[in-house]
Amino acid sequence: MARAATTSDAFNAVAESRRRQILIHLTRGERSVGDIVTAIGLEQPSVSKHLRVLRDVGLVRVRRNGRHMLYRTHADAIRPLYEWTKTFERFWTHQLSQVKGRAEAKSKELLNQQE
Predict the structure, then answer these.
(1) Of 49, 56, 78, 111, which sits most exposed with the smallest number of CB within 10 A?
(2) This prediction's pTM
(3) What CA–CA distances, in Å, run from 72 to 54, 77, 81, 113?
């Protein structure tokens, strides 16, 4: 089965690691394309292409400030991504609790051996 186009939804758009990098950078606030280019180390045409995909699926918003285009995240559009990943939080919490329990048991065992 063919993969959906990257512009079809937020999930496909963030499948690309550079787009995730851009989104993470934009969590710090509104940024120009030049700032993103400098921070991430990609060429300007590549950053612009990725920003267009993110904008087309609604994950980022853009506003003009003179000659500059300023991009920012769109929290409402990111919410479905957050809610989907949150479904796995229970799994990781359970796994971390098990690791913690084993570590504490091992620590207790070592303390008892030293006595």
Answers:
(1) 111
(2) 0.70
(3) 10, 12, 17, 56
What is the C-alpha R_g of the chain?
21
Please check whether residue 2 lies inside any domain of the structure: no
CA neighbor of 21 nearest in space, from 80, 75, 73: 73
Q: How many domains does the chain have?
A: 1
Domain limits for position 84: 10-114
CA angle, corner 9, sides to 11 and 26, nearest 5?
65
Grade residue 21 by pLDDT with cuts at 50, 70 and 90: very high
pLDDT (tens digit per residue) in 22-59: 999 999 999 999 999 999 999 999 999 999 999 999 99
